[in-house]
Amino acid sequence: MTIDPWQTRMTQGWIIPPPTEPRKSRDELRTEREKKVRQLVADGLLRSKKIRSALLTVRREDFIPPRYRDYAYQEVPLPLPGTRATISCPHSYPLFYEPLGLDAGHRFMEIGLGSGYGAAVAREVVGPTGLVVSIEIDPVTYEFGKTNLERAGYNDVLVLLGDGGLGYAEHAPYDRICITAACGEVPAPLLEQLKVGGKLIAPIEEQGVQNLTLLSKGERGMSRLVICEVLYIPLRGRHGQVPPG
Ligand SMILES: C[S@@+](CC[C@H](N)C(=O)[O-])C[C@H]1O[C@@H](n2cnc3c(N)ncnc32)[C@H](O)[C@@H]1O
């Protein structure tokens, strides 16, 4: 028996399914999307109508490299062009956006554009009165995510190439900030750029364990709530776990 190296390849502790020619039709993928959303609701991960509607609207398959497109609704992170970049599992988006309470009109900043899918979902949620800024450090991944967003018609997402740990002060303060890579501690510029009354969510690594943590900024400082254990690629850049190179 021969072993397909792709079936056994692991990057951060998860198994990547083997690349295949895309075969599924639009209709099949739509059916899978609807089924996934029903499952997320049944699992109690998805409660907000706005986030549910966004997950039904955005075609996740359009944000995935063709050879992995047929796995769009499987609970596995999939590789993206660039250095160690992945599109997170489908359940990760409500897992992050529900505790954040992402809603219409919010000014939202994402660190880690990746495929652009998370930014597209956020754009649907915040609507025309909100703002979505997304920053990506890897130039190859940045081009991929930006192209996906433009092709899908999300020309109103502000996408930036750079170190997201520094945030983007030009549009601060933000109501909501989401870091989609694991950090040792939340970069100070992001805390500064968060509005009083705002919330930030991030995988924070403590003693070798990554905890998805919600920070709420009050008049008198930050409060923290650990939500669950997660597994994300490390944050790069000046405030990251991987030094700039
Ligand atoms: C899990 S992926 C993001 C998934 C993405 N939100 C999506 O929907 O596809 C994490 C991303 O963070 C990026 N990243 C890591 N460190 C960064 C930094 N300091 N600034 C901006 N992006 C960073 C990685 O290159 C990678 O694309």
Care to describe what's here?
It contains 7 helices and 9 strands. The chain has one domain: Vaccinia Virus protein VP39 (Rossmann fold), CATH 3.40.50. The termini are far apart. Residues 1-10 have low confidence and may be disordered. It has 245 residues and is an alpha/beta fold. Helix 3 packs across helix 5. A 7-stranded mixed β-sheet has the order 5-4-3-6-7-8-9. It has a two-stranded antiparallel ribbon with strand order 1-2. Bound molecules: S-adenosylmethionine (SAM). S-adenosylmethionine binds at residues 82, 85-88, 111-112, 114-115, 117-118, 135-138, 141, 163-165, 180-181, 232-233, 235-237, 240.
Question: What is the element layout, followed by pairings?
Answer:
Layout: H1 5-8, H2 26-42, H3 49-57, E1 78-79, E2 86-87, H4 92-100, E3 107-111, H5 117-126, E4 131-136, H6 139-151, E5 158-161, E6 174-179, H7 188-192, E7 194-206, E8 209-218, E9 221-230
Parallel strand pairs: 3-4, 3-6, 4-5, 6-7
Antiparallel strand pairs: 1-2, 7-8, 8-9
